[in-house]
Structures are given as C-alpha cells and as structure tokens.
Amino acid sequence: MYPFLYNDTKLDVENVGFIIVQVKNASSYQASNHKDTFKKMDPFQTALLTEEDKRGGKYPIPIIRIIFSLSASGEPAVTHMTYKPSSEGAASLDEHGRPLFTSYDFVCSGVGPGILQPVKKSPGAWEALVNKNDPWESFYRVTTPDLLRSQLPGHGSHRAHFKSWNDDPTIIGCNPS
C-alpha cells in the first residue's frame, strides 16, 4: 500500500488516498480471479478505512488498486477493470448496493518493459523469475547453508536455525536432519 496526497500538497489526513498493490506470481492464478482479488483489496474490508473516513456516505478520495499478474500467458498488457454492476469490484457496499469508495482498478498481466520499466534492460532475467515458487529449502542451496541458517534464527525447522541458542535439537523439538 502506498499513500498519496490528493487535490493538495498539504499533508493532512483529509488529503490522503491510497494505491493498493497485489503481486501474483503463480501460474495457478487466473484472470477469472481478478474481481475476487479486488474485493479482497477493499479498503473498508481490510480496515484501512473506517466509517469515520467517509464523507457523505463514501470515501471521497479515489483508491487505485493494481494487480500484477506476472505469470499471465500471452502478450504483456495493462487492463483497466470496469464493473457492471459497480458492486462487482467492492465488498463494502451502501444500502443501495454501491461501493463505499471510488476505485481505479488495473491488472498488469505478464512481464514486459511496457509493464515494468526495469525489464527493458534485461528481459530474460525478469522472465526467468516468473513462476518461481520454489520452497524455502532452495534458498539454502549454497556452499555454507548452516551459516546462512544461523543468520535467520528460528526461521525453519532445521537445527542450524537454532544452533546459536542450543545445540540439542530435542529441546527445541525440531528434526535433526
């Protein structure tokens, strides 16, 4: 989430809007999930905004929501979401079924320089990151994995994560593999 000032450069809570971002990198994430994902990014449902933030029954500053669907197939593209009815893009609705906020929703599909400018310098390296959902164990495939584990105390079940505190793995209940 990124705050921004709206309609003024004066730093005041009355002028703050939000850009809310979700990044999806799994090939299992489908375009059919976009509306559900945007509903989960509803600023009232996530408690980013409360009843006190509304003016005239809704939040007065537009909310920008962006989904980066990095592993999407096809040509990289930016799509502005539109909803018919408008309630499809929000979970928080007023008594007439209208969203409690105005949103501008975008889906950035794929990885390309038209989506993310740093991709222009080395597109192959960025594309290689797509669908990389390796388990944590691949992180430790280095020449000194126990040293790395000691720098991340308590972050896993391997005994090296706890070795600086205790050499006996039975006390901490981890598998001494």
Q: Tell me the number of structural domains.
A: 2
Instruction: Please state how the strands of the largest beta sheet are arranged side by side.
Output: 1-2-3-5-4
| Helix and strand element order | EEHEEEHHH
Q: What class do helices, strands and sheet pairing give?
A: alpha/beta
Give the N-to-C terminal Cα separation: 39 Å
Compute the number of helices. Answer: 4
Strand content: 15-25%
Mean pLDDT over the residues: 82
Number of strands: 5
Give the low-confidence spans: 171-177
Rg of Cα set: 22 Å
State the helicity in percent bands.
10-25%
Largest sheet: 5 strands, mixed
The shape is extended
Features:
5 strands, 177 residues, five-stranded mixed beta sheet, single chain, alpha/beta, 2 domains
Structure description:
The chain has 177 residues and is an alpha/beta fold. It has 2 domains: 2-133, no CATH class; 137-172, no CATH class. Helix content is 14%, strand content 21%. It is built from 4 helices and 5 strands, in the order E-E-H-E-E-E-H-H-H. The protein has a 5-stranded mixed β-sheet with strand order 1-2-3-5-4, covered by helices on one side. The radius of gyration is 22 Å and the shape is extended.
